[in-house]
Amino acid sequence: MKFLFIGDASNARYTLAKGLRELGHEALVIGTRGKWRRMNVDICVERGAGRVGAVVYLLRWLLLLPKLRGYDIVDFNGQFFMDFKPGLKRLFFDYLRKHNRYVISTLLGLGHYYVKGCVEAKLFRSSDFNIGDTPRTNAFASQMADEWLNQPEVVKLSRHMAETSHLLVGTGYEYWACLHHYFPEKTCFVPLPMETPEEPANIGETQGPVRIFIGIQKERDEEKGTDILWRVLQRLNNDYPDKMTLVRAENVPYDEYCRMMAGSDILVDQLYTCYAMNALIAMSMGIVAATVAIPEAYALLSEKESFPMIDLPPDEEGIYRQLEHYVLHPERLAEAKRQSIAFVRKRHHYLEVARQYMSLMGRLEKNNP
Q1: How far apart (Å, rounded) are the C-alpha atoms in residues 185 and 179?
Q2: Measured distance CA(271)–CA(301) in Å, rounded
Q3: Shortest CA distance to 261 belongs to which of 272, 273, 248, 251?
Q4: Distances 283 to 144, 235, 269, 310 between C-alpha atoms, Å
Q5: Average predicted confidence (pLDDT) for the chain
Q6: What's residue 112's pLDDT?
Q7: Where do the domains of the chain lie, and which CATH numbers do they carry?
Q8: Which pLDDT does position 314 carry in this prediction?
Q9: pLDDT tens digits, one per residue of 15-33
Q10: Rg over CA atoms, the chain
């Protein structure tokens, strides 16, 4: 079988493509390298600055199009698959839908139905747009709510892609829940894929201060809640300077980021949405992830035995107490580290995820005889 992925986020599609190749299939990932993040893609198509950059970008896609026909599945990363205005994106989407067997729209980040599910349906205890019943009113939430809910061309393209895609895929609990809320018959869940390295050396009792790591994308500080998390960590570090070591990585390339995180005891990730690739990377390295890990996320994976993540509440005092517990009792980290590795290998191993993804073909053929 032949798979084409257009657009990626945090190497999720690239890792899935690797799994599909190892299972004997063809897979191609086209997208950007994510500026400073330097993500992996098979074909890099990035838009340069100004009018010249836009023209070159358009020509590059036009030259690629004849080669992007005859795939069994074309998988689009929501509306982030190209850096064009919605009208032109629709033309490319419709062309690829016409000249390939099936198209899937995968939600890997923000999108109309995700924002709609958070803002209007209020599906979650916390999200990028709410904390309980209270709307978040920061600049990011206001701007994104307006863009995804009130811009006619964005809404129109979102509806068109959702209604004409053969399947919709959510890669995390919130993404799946929002798509399923609006399109229950055609929504599927496929976990994020993760390569699992050899058994890390730091599994076992924590020796010395607890090493806590946080990665920050400055332009997404408010969105992810890392502004609040950093404030809590600084307070914790001031209170227990001899019991913990605090490491911060800000806007560094992916490979360097992983090197900086290696050897940590705890990763403090994000505050409003469920765990994603960042937490999985850490867990695969034997690092305990402190993030949002609600019961519904485990249930979607059919996980009933292992719950290794530290579930962060959306309030500063609750976050402080959760992390303080492990700073004062580092001996309790060893089992959580072992469970973290086992959880990723059981639920997110890239070959197993690739097999789950391949199983979508059966549903596609059943729904489209």
Answers
A1: 10
A2: 21
A3: 248
A4: 30, 25, 12, 12
A5: 90
A6: 96
A7: 2-193+350-367 (3.40.50.2000), 210-347 (3.40.50.2000)
A8: 80
A9: 999 999 999 999 999 988 7
A10: 21
